[in-house]
């Protein structure tokens, strides 16, 4: 059995959530169902604006005394502030935790203290304890990008609808749960099938184009480049302009590499 890579994700941080009302509190806010979340289970979710734009991504990890929220470290204070704003009289405690976030991938990814990543099996698992690591975050980011999975750098804040960021394909939205902030717009996009844009990986020769560079189908704008590295990047693309045509960015040819998991 292949030994996995373990990388501490310095870009992520933890918020501990507890109290008798923690489930109902999060249930009314997040795109994912937490009422049925079990201890040891991990679920991927988003916190949206009332207009349905993606504010923050997060993972909800079931714990013995509540849940752990795995969030972008740069936004943890803002997320705490926003959650506190919604708390009102709910009996829930929100505390910044010093637990590390560790990605476990590329080998055996089951065992004590490991939470299976709900997005794709190939992404492995996550851990929230002190354990030895043997890789850095850049190795994990290369692994994620190779699977065609977008990340927080790609969707920013209040710039993207979660379906455009593939949350519906990566187990990030439960369309059967009750209301959550931004639900009306999200459900309408899914119900009407009006998904015009999606984040998809593109490949090319050489270094990545700058963030925001136009992807062109002939002379027509087909999207924009997001985060990337040599040879590969994510792009937000218009689905009606990328099939059967030559695409370029700043004069360079690029190719869309649609992952198997993208419908």
TrEMBL record:
Residues 197-262 form the CAF17 C-terminal domain. InterPro entries: CAF17_C, GCVT_N, TrmE/GcvT-like, YgfZ/GCV_T_CS, YgfZ/GcvT. It comes from the Bacteria. Signal peptide: none annotated. Coiled coil: none annotated. Keywords: Transit peptide. One of its GO terms (biological process) is iron-sulfur cluster assembly. The keyword RNA-binding does not apply. Residues 15-106 form the GCVT N-terminal domain. Gene3D superfamilies: Probable tRNA modification gtpase trme, domain 1. PANTHER family: TRANSFERASE CAF17, MITOCHONDRIAL-RELATED. This is Aminomethyltransferase family protein. It comes from Caulobacter vibrioides (strain NA1000 / CB15N).
């Amino acid at each position: 059995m292949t030994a996995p890579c373990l990388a501490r994700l310095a870009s992520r941080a933890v918020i501990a959530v507890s109290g008798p009302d923690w489930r109902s509190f999060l249930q009314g806010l997040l795109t994912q169902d937490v009422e049925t979340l079990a201890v040891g289970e991990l679920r991927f979710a988003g916190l949206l604006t009332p207009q349905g734009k993606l504010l923050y991504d997060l993972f909800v990890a079931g714990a013995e005394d509540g849940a752990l929220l795995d969030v972008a470290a740069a936004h943890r204070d803002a997320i705490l502030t926003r959650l506190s704003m919604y708390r009102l009289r709910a009996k829930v405690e929100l505390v910044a935790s010093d637990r590390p976030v560790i990605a476990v991938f590329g080998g055996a990814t089951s065992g004590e203290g490991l939470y299976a990543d709900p997005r794709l099996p190939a992404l492995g698992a996550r851990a929230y304890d002190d354990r030895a690591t043997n890789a850095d975050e850049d190795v994990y980011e290369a692994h994620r990008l190779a699977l065609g999975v977008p990340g927080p750098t790609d969707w920013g804040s209040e710039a993207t609808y979660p379906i455009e960021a593939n949350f519906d394909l990566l187990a990030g939205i439960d369309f059967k749960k009750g209301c959550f902030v931004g639900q009306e717009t999200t459900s309408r996009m899914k119900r009407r099938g009006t998904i015009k844009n999606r984040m998809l990986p593109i490949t090319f020769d050489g270094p990545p184009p700058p963030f925001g560079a136009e992807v062109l189908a002939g002379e027509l704008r087909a999207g924009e480049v997001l985060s990337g590295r040599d040879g590969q990047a994510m792009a937000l693309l218009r689905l009606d302009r990328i099939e059967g045509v030559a695409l370029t960015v700043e004069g360079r040819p690029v190719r869309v590499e649609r992952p198997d998991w993208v419908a």
